[in-house]
Amino acid sequence: MPAALSKALRIITYSLLTTCSLSTLASSAPINPLDEPDQWQLLSYSSIPANTVSFDDASMQIAVSGSASPIIFPLSSPTYIDEITLSVSFQGQLELGKHQQGSPKADDFMLRLGLVYEGEKRLNMFEYAVAPGWIKTLFNLAPEDTGVSYIDFKSIYSDPVIAGVDRLHPNSEYMHEHFIAAQPQENETLSLNIVPDQNKRILGIWLSCDGDNTGSTYIVNLKELSLIPRKE
Q1: Does the record's keyword annotation contain Signal (predicted)?
Q2: Which H or E element spans position 141?
Q3: The CATH classification of domain 31-229, taken from the options 1.10.10, 2.60.120, 1.10.4160, 2.40.50
């Protein structure tokens, strides 16, 4: 092999290895949605007042006043996520009264962290036409060549009776819920490490904070939200 060609091949090989290494590092770099406030989608329900959402110093504040509304962060492409870290604090309380949390009259939670999993389900033209706005948004998270499985909600509960309970939400087959952590004391920070389903790719993050059933008023301060992609 001529020396010049050998040298050229070494240079090309080094360049390819460097490019692959940088690509791997980029693909496995943490995704920090709170650093990208413009990428969040703030939705609303037709008959329920919307929450007030603001961003400050890489944190998100959600003010709830008898209100509820989805807050969505779409990922740029379906992604396997190894781990999610979250830190949050609350001001105020849910007014559950004598109702069990999660029941029809008290289906309010101060924070549900939803993982939208990729699947095969897509809406046909008729289903899309009659679907509520939040369902359309859910399915719009999926690229054209794939679909949606369900939203896997990791919920912070206020009622200890439901600690550790899993359920399929009675209002929708697309909402699976796991009550994973108790609400902390007011202004105390709760930190969680969540491991998603390792066999499913995630399309986006779906936050839900609601007080419409119970007429509750409170503030959520989301201080950290980081997604660690799987190393390819």
Answers
A1: yes
A2: none
A3: 2.60.120
